[in-house]
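> forwarded from #structure-qc
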């Protein structure tokens, strides 16, 4: 008999792409679980009583290492959307109350006047549509070394949404042949356009020792100040040092920038024992990173690239267009990546079309594994975001990764057999993504908090930030 884990998705902090949250979460889980287990895993969206879950189906007879529920749990706990997990049992399940929608209660306001479904509805637990599964809460192991305040406290225009950042990091780690390092704490992670460190904070929470670089000294300073305050407030022993960036080869000419290093321990005993996390923060042009970091030293490269919403024409410094930046940074990024490493890049499809990105990466010895639009979601009027996953052409696990890419692209919902079920799917059960006249989501526009920080997409107002910079 197949066993099911049902993952209740965290309410999205960014209501703007709520409608895409389900497919994104399914694809992330297929990549992450499949990569760690070494074979595609059956993950899909499932709606039960009007609530959306991710369903992970495993076969207890499966002897693949790690495929049992117990080994899955630490991986599930790291998924960007995991909020609570249940074991589902369909046998002896509770019967839906009389008159209840067998496939799950219809969303409030949905039209329920149509004829009753005549065939089996695969969004429901039972072929006859008469029963709901029993859900038993199941605890997840604690996989985070630090609290969520590390990711959420710092707020600023241009911050990448934390949940999306976690997804990017998980995907890049999944591509690496050293992916187990994300659980052990020794996966080498680089964010080469780190801004004020959302990716680095996630990596620190996971127990990693990441490296970040950004050309904007103001961003680096702000993150440095935040981190030292946070470490003091949480009584975490730490040491810091800073200096000019040493060039690996004197041929580099002018200085490449500056560095700031932090060593962080859980307590004094750990500090004395050398059980520390290290963070390296570089203020420099990302195109020069190969001059200052060792070749083949990165397992997972995670970048939320500039969106280029305002400034396509400039070609110098950090005002390069996103495609120019990608083209100029790629030799360095490729040199830093281990043969078994992987990269996850978030890009604005309007300024960095998939085919052009694939060409650029291809010309630098990288194979793009994600398909066009696989992680596509709308951030705001100017940003139509997607994720590109790529690995070196000679990655030792290319066959496995190609199989995972194919499985990730399969439909994320069960095939729908009735018009009613299809209609329900087309209408998000909660937080509908209807848009107002200016293209922002109705939910965001009416959210009182949304107007106090960075409207319209309060967590990710990239556009205003870039405008400020380039005017
Ligand atoms: C979309 S933002 C990343 C935001 C970041 N994830 C965060 O949450 O703070 C893109 C970043 O790329 C940086 N950037 C642009 N051009 C760069 C370059 N040539 N070298 C290094 N960083 C660059 C910008 O300064 C900006 O911080």
């Amino acid at each position: 008999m197949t066993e099911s884990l049902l993952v209740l998705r965290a309410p999205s902090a960014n209501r703007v792409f709520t409608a895409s949250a389900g497919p994104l979460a399914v694809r992330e889980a297929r990549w992450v679980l499949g990569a760690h287990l070494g074979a595609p895993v059956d993950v899909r969206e499932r709606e039960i009583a009007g609530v959306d879950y991710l369903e992970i189906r495993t076969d207890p007879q499966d002897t693949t290492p790690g495929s049992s529920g117990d080994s899955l749990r630490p991986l599930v706990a790291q998924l960007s959307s995991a909020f609570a997990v249940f074991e589902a049992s369909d046998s002896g399940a509770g019967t839906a109350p009389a008159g209840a929608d067998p496939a799950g209660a219809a969303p409030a306001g949905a039209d329920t006047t149509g004829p009753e479904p005549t065939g089996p509805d695969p969004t429901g637990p039972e072929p006859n549509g008469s029963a709901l599964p029993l859900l038993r809460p199941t605890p997840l192991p604690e996989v985070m070394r630090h609290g969520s305040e590390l990711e959420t406290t710092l707020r600023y225009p241009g911050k990448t949404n934390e949940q999306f950042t976690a997804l990017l990091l998980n995907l890049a780690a999944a591509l690496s042949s050293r992916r187990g390092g994300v659980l052990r704490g020794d996966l080498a992670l680089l964010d080469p356009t780190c801004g004020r460190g959302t990716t680095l904070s996630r990596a620190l929470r996971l127990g990693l020792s990441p490296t970040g670089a950004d050309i904007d000294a103001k961003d680096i300073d702000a993150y440095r100040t935040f981190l030292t305050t946070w470490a003091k407030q949480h009584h975490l022993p730490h040491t810091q040092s800073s200096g000019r960036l040493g060039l690996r080869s004197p041929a580099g000419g002018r200085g490449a920038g500056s560095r700031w290093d932090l060593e962080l321990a859980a307590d004094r005993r750990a500090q004395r024992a050398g059980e520390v996390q290290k963070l390296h923060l570089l203020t420099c042009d990302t195109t020069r990173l190969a001059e200052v970091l060792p070749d083949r030293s990165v397992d997972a490269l995670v970048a939320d690239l500039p969106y280029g919403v305002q400034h396509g024409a400039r070609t110098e410094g950090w005002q390069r267009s996103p495609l120019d930046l990608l083209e100029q940074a790629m030799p360095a990024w490729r040199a830093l990546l281990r043969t078994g490493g992987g990269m996850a890049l978030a890009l604005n499809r309007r300024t960095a079309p998939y085919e052009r990105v694939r060409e650029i990466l291809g010309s630098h010895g990288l194979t793009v594994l994600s398909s066009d639009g696989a992680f596509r979601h709308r951030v705001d009027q100017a940003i139509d975001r997607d994720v590109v996953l790529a690995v070196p052409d000679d990655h030792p696990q290319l066959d496995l990764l190609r199989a995972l890419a194919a499985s990730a692209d399969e439909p994320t919902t069960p095939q729908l057999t009735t018009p009613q079920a299809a209609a329900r799917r087309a209408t998000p059960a909660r937080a509908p993504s209807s848009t107002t006249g200016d293209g922002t989501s109705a939910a965001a526009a009416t959210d009182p908090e949304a107007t106090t920080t960075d409207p319209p997409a309060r967590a990710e107002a990239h556009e205003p930030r870039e405008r400020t910079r380039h005017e």
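QC bot note: The first strand starts at residue 3 and ends at 9. The domain at 149-408 is CATH 3.40.50.150 (Rossmann fold).
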